[in-house]
């Protein structure tokens, strides 16, 4: 039973059945001003969801959950790819590390065909003339200014 300490008004920790102090109860996460719940921009996730012709409406909660799932997916595949890079005694992720992670982890099997398709496109891209300062990004089929 929590009771105030003798006269100073501060609560004491609850005691367990054996007389020792019990662990404090879990607390809800505190909100920090300016902190974001999602690292991905929700407006971009919503635009991607709405790009699907089968989707007519998407609630904010659904968008948030999809954004969070995407974050966890990227985190997981990045960690697995980093392990592949470490096996090669490197710290920098390379395309082959992602390919190795996709082949090694059963949960990524759905990406194998897409990875092969991107590899074929990349071989054709190597034949294209390169523009200095611009790098072609296959993941989102866009250009990145470098």
UniProtKB/TrEMBL annotation:
Keyword Endoplasmic reticulum recorded: no
Entry-linked Pfam families: CBFD_NFYB_HMF (PF00808)
Membrane-spanning ranges: none
InterPro entries found in the cross-reference section: CBFA_NFYB_domain, Histone-fold, Transcr_DNA_Rep_Reg
Annotated segments matching region Disordered: 1-35
Protein name: Transcription factor CBF/NF-Y/archaeal histone domain-containing protein
Cell compartment(s), UniProt: Nucleus
Annotated ranges, domain Transcription factor CBF/NF-Y/archaeal histone: 39-102
Organism: Felis catus (Cat)
Primary subcellular site in the record, as a coarse category: nucleus
């Amino acid at each position: 039973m929590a009771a105030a300490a003798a006269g100073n008004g501060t609560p004491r920790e609850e005691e367990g059945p054996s007389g020792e102090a019990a662990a404090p109860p879990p607390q809800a996460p505190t909100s920090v001003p300016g902190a974001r719940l999602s690292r991905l921009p929700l407006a971009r996730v919503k635009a991607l969801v709405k790009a699907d012709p089968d989707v007519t409406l998407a609630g904010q909660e659904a968008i948030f959950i999809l954004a969070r799932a995407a974050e966890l997916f990227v985190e997981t595949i990045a960690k697995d790819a980093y392990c592949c890079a470490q096996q090669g005694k490197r710290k920098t992720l390379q395309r082959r590390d992602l390919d190795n992670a996709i082949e090694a982890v059963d949960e990524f099997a759905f990406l194998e065909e897409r990875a092969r398709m991107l590899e074929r496109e990349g071989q054709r891209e190597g034949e294209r003339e390169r523009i200095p300062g611009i790098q072609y990004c296959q993941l989102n089929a866009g250009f990145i200014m470098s």
